[in-house]
Amino acid sequence: MYIEQINSPQDLKKLPVADLQVVSDEIRTIILEKVSKYGGHVGPDLGAVDAIVALHYVFDSPVDQIVFDVSHQAFAHKIITGRRDAFINNRVSEYTAPKESPHDFFIMGHTSPSISMCCGLARGRDLKQEKNNVIAFIGDGALSGGEAFEGLDNVYQIGTNMIIVVNDNQWAIAENHGGIYSNLRKLRESDGKCECNYFKALDLDYMYVADGNDVEALVKAFRSVKDIDHPIVVHINTQKGKGYLPAIENEEKFHYSVPFDLKTGLPLKDPDRFESYSTLTGKYLIDEMKKNPELIAITSATPMVIGFTPDLRKEAGAQFVDVGIAEEDAVAFASGLAKRGVRPVYGVYGTFLQRSFDQLSEDLCMQNNPAVILVYLTGVYGIPDQSHQCFFDIIELSDIPNMVYLAPVCKEEYFAMLEWSIAQREHPVAIRVPSHGVKSIPDYLPQTDYSDLNRFRMMKKGSQVAIIAVGTFYQLGEAVVKALKDKSGVDATLINPRYLTGVDEKMLDELKSDHKLVITLEDGITEGGYGEKIAGYYGPMDMKVVNYGFKKEFVDQYKPSELIAATGLTDVQIADDIIKYLAK
Amino acid sequence: MYIEQINSPQDLKKLPVADLQVVSDEIRTIILEKVSKYGGHVGPDLGAVDAIVALHYVFDSPVDQIVFDVSHQAFAHKIITGRRDAFINNRVSEYTAPKESPHDFFIMGHTSPSISMCCGLARGRDLKQEKNNVIAFIGDGALSGGEAFEGLDNVYQIGTNMIIVVNDNQWAIAENHGGIYSNLRKLRESDGKCECNYFKALDLDYMYVADGNDVEALVKAFRSVKDIDHPIVVHINTQKGKGYLPAIENEEKFHYSVPFDLKTGLPLKDPDRFESYSTLTGKYLIDEMKKNPELIAITSATPMVIGFTPDLRKEAGAQFVDVGIAEEDAVAFASGLAKRGVRPVYGVYGTFLQRSFDQLSEDLCMQNNPAVILVYLTGVYGIPDQSHQCFFDIIELSDIPNMVYLAPVCKEEYFAMLEWSIAQREHPVAIRVPSHGVKSIPDYLPQTDYSDLNRFRMMKKGSQVAIIAVGTFYQLGEAVVKALKDKSGVDATLINPRYLTGVDEKMLDELKSDHKLVITLEDGITEGGYGEKIAGYYGPMDMKVVNYGFKKEFVDQYKPSELIAATGLTDVQIADDIIKYLAK
After folding, report:
1. pLDDT tens-digit profile of A490-510?
2. Is beta strand A457-460 parallel, antiparallel or unpaired with respect to A493-496?
3. Structure pTM?
4. Cα separation of A111 and A351, whole Å?
5. What is the set of domains in chain B, with CATH numbers?
6. Which residue in the set A332, A535, A554 is minimally distant from B117, CB to CB?
7. Which residues of chain B make contact with A339, given a CB cutoff of 8 A?
8. What is the side-by-side strand order in the sheet with B372-376?
């Protein structure tokens, strides 16, 4: 195999062009073996292999700087740049990471920043009066993100060398949405010749490569733009899932896959074995839609976040809109829908919702429009990679005026909150969907009405110490109460605060009569977090407060249980701490 | 005058088309009289009058819904919809406001959300099976914002009635930047016929109106699209400043103006009479650029925020980039520049920086690239209108890992921090530029090195109570110390924390020996703010903490002194509070 001899782009360059297609196919084999075993992104990587091989053949990385947008498509780049074995053995991140290699310039998790960042690299190069190629590699749905447009719109200001490779695989995570993709189609159908050209409309030079999986054609194209003296878009037409039939036939499922059988493409474990909040929510929403034609669900490129399979999408019809990778649009759209009197529910991963901070504040909450936002994969049980950090949603959402951010502790409470939030017309409401699996508390009778804001629920009345356990960490709170009882006999109070956007001053005041310590448990960072609201409230009083949660840091490739233990967030550790505090 | 008889769009409709141009001119006179007296947006409003008159003549507001993007261009709309006298007497907001009129659907301050919000109104209408026109009125530079693109890109999904009026006045606040504006020019030059058409590239129908200040032509165009069964862009070519020569000749200066003499266009008060952080920063940066060819300044449509007049921009050459209204691009661009080893300084108003929350976190801080961000107009002395709320920057910036957010208390400290932040290579650094005018403390010897993070500076050592006074509120802290001494003889400690991204644990621990109370004074909202970090730190200890700052709310059209008094943030009130707390 060639690939075993390739430990750097220099090794690749020794081969004749005619042999590169074999290298591409070998890389695809490696990718398939790895992702079928460990899980990971499949389709985007298989389709991008040939272009990456050609880029490294033509350009001189890392002097020439290649920046991969939504870098989960860059597996071939990792394999070529000396990380083959680490990749095979799952010892490198799925994303580009400067700490791994000088060939990586940024940690790229969220989509769409590559063009703006490359403008920075290019202008920096010019100010330093140096020479090198700067290449942005963007695709897989990222063009619909506003940041990609803002970058493209400003590329003309660079005026010197910059190459934007648009990897057009005709898909995002699910189908592409957005008028721009109709233009890409017209460009493909006209062999790049269609006069109405999105990139030219942004004052950019343009080149089309009809077969973006033909390494020789790509080498020829890249050679023709190497050292170019102005910005150019190289639009390459690639096939998502290239070389693997199951991924071609089911592009959405194979965007990212759990471990699967290489021969059949079937997952090694049945993913539907457990119920999830996504599938439960999808079923709930589709049933409600039948009763209420004014209920509408929105997603931004990840319909499966609310369990909207292709079948459910079809069933929902006009009551479902996927806006593509466009979280700003999604929030403003939801606000407009709510203003018009219908019932929008936007489902989104927490890490991506931070792209809409201004829209949440200005477009939604300042208007006080009653849209509902379901926030998935937050906290330690979210996505365990710094590129998709999940620890910041409470900070983002809980201090915006008018917002009501709810944190259910179990399935029963989640659906009660969801039902209320859709029915009410008073507030924008976000729900922090638990990320640690569906926990049922069968005898839990949740409230049906949450309009009396910021009322905590006392789950168990004790004395001396009260534990305020937020959402996902409610079960940790229960465990702490038990451990404390076992260790010291102390009968702690346990509180489910339910609301992350305010404190229950009445209950906090009542606690003062027979408690001296309040503990907050929060599945997010403590600085600027929910617990500090409690500390701030009790600041002038005698009550002691200790905030538990995570440190303000970007945590990379962690195991939840290990991070929890390392942060001292175990029942035993916290119970021991409480005993010490009470003894003071 | 016609306009005195027009108290609603119905009154306007009674006139023959031929008389509308007179109405337009009368409205322009009213606008000029009002803004010359009170100050306000000038150019964008004068240019948009004719289109707004035509819209109200053709459509039936509020059944037909007109949404003004960056609604400071909507003065004519306010005048026509029953708010003429309130407008003349400066009793209405500069922005659309649903509380003022059923003809206003959203409070629109930040640019670019109108299209997405109109998509919501349109889809909501369709789900309700109702009929009306939905019209987004967008222009004045707003198309360069990523959110506007995301919206445009998704309009095709609506499939039914929606009209997007693109008010192309060839300017943003300063010159337009962005390749898209080259396409608008080509469209103007070809009378809308140029094949390469940005809007058509997004799969949208398109119509061009060559003279967007000709009311009759506009009426004809709008009549032709009224009740259209699919989305369409109506591109109208208008003149910013129409009808007022000084505003036409100096479009940037008359985007927004302080009160001015109508005859000459000269400001009634010399705006350069006082030094400002903007002009001082501009002078500093341009001098530094001469010494350091790798220093580069960035703005996003507001070059004057860093005092970059047209002359300074010219002088800076390639060392200055205005990216237009594109705050996401600006942050990612700065990150790329810093990565390439040059020294980017991005100047931005705090209210607009919240459009870049994800970019600050993912694109800049996660990469830990040493870009510098100067944050202007924050807190109570910022922009006193809810549409441009300024109270949320500490919440946004202070909890992002790796970020260093500095709050200087005087001119001397500001420049010391600025110099250090540009020279250092360790951190992304943001500086909260004081918003209450340039205060000098001549005998203040600021540190030159801020790399030992989170070290507070004790300005005066006292006992019993320590006052931690943040940035703009440092002078309030001084006044509280004095008032307390005068009232009670208590000699308070005064601390300038300098860093908003962490606490000085050593100093906080030392305070415990001879203090029982710590007061934080913060020019931002307390919930999730800086003071709560102090409360959180002292939570488990005996120290009492009281956080002073503003409430979590959107505050509209306030006077700073009144809001400060109403919130109890005066020296006397706080000194009285402290005396009570100490007596407990």
Report:
1. 999 999 999 999 999 999 999
2. antiparallel
3. 0.97
4. 12
5. 3-257 (3.40.50.970), 277-432 (3.40.50.970), 457-583 (3.40.50.920)
6. A332
7. 105-106, 117, 120-121, 124
8. B320-322, B295-299, B343-349, B372-376, B429-432, B404-406
